[in-house]
Amino acid sequence: MRYHAAPALPTALLIAALTPFAAQAQRGVPRTNTPSPDAEVYLVPLTVRGDSVRPGVPANLTRRAGYDNQPVFASNSRAVFYTANLGDGHTDIWRLDLSTGLSAPLRRTQPESEYSAAPILGDTAALAVIRVEADSTQRLWRLPLGSGAPSVILPDLKPVGYFAQPDDSTWVTFVLGSPATLQVTRTQRTGGTTPSRILARDIGRSLHRIPGTRFVSFVQKGAQPWHVMRLDVNSNRIDTLVALPEGTEDVTWVDSTTLLTGQNTKLMQWTMGSGTARGTWREIGDFGFAHLARISRLAVSPNRQWLAMVAESQPRTAAAASRSAAATWLDRIDTARVRRAISILAADSMEGRLTGSPGMERAARWLEQEYRAVGLAPAGDSGGYRQHIPLRAAQGPNATGRTRPAPVESWAAWNALPAEQRLRTQNIAGVIRGSDPALRNEVVLVTAHYDHIGIGRAVDGDSINNGADDDASGNVALLEIARALQNGPRPKRTILFISITGEEMGGIGTRWYLQHPLLPLEQTVVDLNIEMIAHPDSIAGGFGRAWLTGYERSTLGDLLTDNGIPLMPDPRPGQSFFTRSDNAAFARIGIPAHSLSSFNLATPYHHPKDEAGTVNVSHMAQVISATAKAVRLLADGDKPAWHPGGRPEARPAR
User: Fold this and answer.
1) How far is Cα 29 from Cα 67, in angstroms, rounded to an integer?
2) For residue 225, cis peptide bond before it (omega within 30 degrees of 0)
3) Whose CA is closest to 211, among 168, 257, 247?
């Protein structure tokens, strides 16, 4: 797997046991309507180009009973803070780290409860929150992210429900009452505050600083339709921006000119100004397919790459269970054989399997031998298992001190190189031909990369990066799945197994395959890529369970889980794992393609300690058995399809 994510943030304690909760009204809760007990926080990727905002597919971040609401992003965009009540009548601010997938309360503050968190301008060490105090007083407080006692920010203003901060000393607040009022207060360097001023009445809960400005937007209620207003806190001038779509009251700003709101299942966009696509609300996405409804609170990350939104989870009708013999077939995986195979492929003699190296050639020869032994028919060039790929020797060490070969665009260009510059690498490919006359020309790809990063800097005297988990484990899975399929019901579709070269070097093997496919790409219905399954992942369910990158992007994940595969969505969206392995290149040309993994961020990665002796072989065998069943289902059942917005954009031609 290629690693290019931002450094992980400090991890928080994972809360594993979640209590069922039916939302109830609570004295002092800042609320203008009653939230559903089925409300969840969803994360949606955003692509923003000028006035164009393209949403991806929503992923459920909370997935539990209880009140999870009011999301807001950390100022660095790497975490989501939200309000949670797990059923004990007490509400805290929780933090979900998008890189680690861990979620936990910032602190337990009983008997007080906190709501409506937001980063404080000019103060990276704390959040501003609404605190319901022990006597039900409701005020604006500062809640430190680390140690330290909470402190009240506006002592004399109450009961406060919501707030926005146009600058580091001004607070625009929603003050509860009949009607609710919009009030402005300033903090002073001496520690006091100015008297608050009422500037509007009968307002809504959606208060926001307009990015890049000292303006604040709010919703003016009263006569229908409600309107989004803009407040200049310097002059107290209030301007009307736009009427809200019917049934909406929550908005969020993408930038200083673009608003989003949710209208039931639809995401709507308004852009300030005139001309095409400006001045009126227009639909940019309908998330009904994601089994959610009543979109409410929204927040856009400061880097504009994510939208967090609250919506009600809707019951989903499970896919029909497959009635084929393959669906009930149980593949028992021999743990001794798994242990032997990974000890060979991740042995020191393979020298870290650097693409184009002698160690990589040894690995290729061993894989050819094993493909033949499990009964796969050769699918490579000239009747063999190898798909040959030209390389050029490196011209010198790169920034890390390593010497790495480079891809060559064609064999003609390779022939023109000096002899000493010519290198080769290869994909290893084998096939099981489909048995069904109507389906056998369709192709299920099962892939794993077998290269790694070679020999590097010594750690405790060991300089060989063996790559047992990354990704010898995936190739052992390919072999065991192929063996299992040969011993059970014949698959209806053709299954092509490929051990791919050059993944760690930018996807050399996948790129060559797409330019020179061994079986027609237009008849390839899915790619299931297996990437790092050597260790359990506690937040994916632990032993014997795995997660799927981009689960929410297509029907593949639900198709498998509905048929009993122990699989869950990737719990770490901030790591962008979907785009970090060979599946991504297949996905960009339209083939539903995902990676199955159980990488847990804690086990050795790109490190000499990623050795066969560290592998949890029993866990691997369980995952392989489940994945063999998954491949049977894909070979015999429905074809996966992209959800709207799920297919990644094709990369522009070089």
Assistant:
1) 12
2) yes
3) 257
Confidence band of 515 (pLDDT split at 50, 70, 90) = very high
| 111-116 contacts at long range (C-beta below 8 A, 24 or more positions apart) | 113/26, 113/28, 113/29, 113/85, 114/83, 114/141, 114/143, 115/29, 115/30, 115/70, 115/83, 115/91, 116/30, 116/70, 116/83, 116/161, 116/162, 116/163
Burial of 487-511, coded b for 16+ CB within 10 Å and e otherwise, reads eebbbbbbbbbbbbbbbbbebbbbb
3-state per-residue secondary structure call for 381-403: HHHCCEEEEEEECCCCCCCCCCC
Amino acid making up residue 77: S
Q: How far apart are CA 606 and CA 240, in angstroms?
A: 55
Give residue-wise pLDDT tens across range 296-352. Answer: 999 999 999 999 999 999 988 876 666 666 667 788 899 999 999 999 999 999 999
528, 444 Cβ separation under 8 angstroms: yes
Alpha-carbon distance 321 to 22, whole Å? 31
pLDDT confidence bin for 293, thresholds 50/70/90? very high
- 411-421, pLDDT tens digit by residue? 999 999 999 99
pTM of the model: 0.91
> What tokens appear for 260 in the block?
């989003």
Give 289: exposed, middle or buried? Use CB within 10 Å, 0-12, 13-18, 19+.
middle
Structure tokens at 499: 């051990």
- 594's CB contacts (< 8 A; 6+ apart) are 527, 528, 529, 548, 549, 550, 551, 553, 554, 556, 557, 578, 583, 587
DSSP conformational letter for 626:
H
Residue 10 CB contacts under 8 Å (≥ 6 apart), including other chains: none
Compute the distance between CA of residue 119 and CA of residue 75 in angstroms, rounded to an integer: 7
Please enumerate, as own/partner, the contacts of 3-10 that have beta carbons within 8 Å and a separation of 24 or more.
3/580, 3/605, 3/606, 4/580, 5/99, 5/574, 5/575, 5/576, 5/580, 6/78, 6/99, 6/574, 8/97, 8/99, 8/100, 8/601, 9/78, 9/79, 9/97, 9/99, 9/100
Q: What pLDDT does 442 receive?
A: 98
Burial 343-376 (b: 16+ CB within 10 A, else e): bbbbbeebbbbbbbbebbbbbbebbbebbeebeb
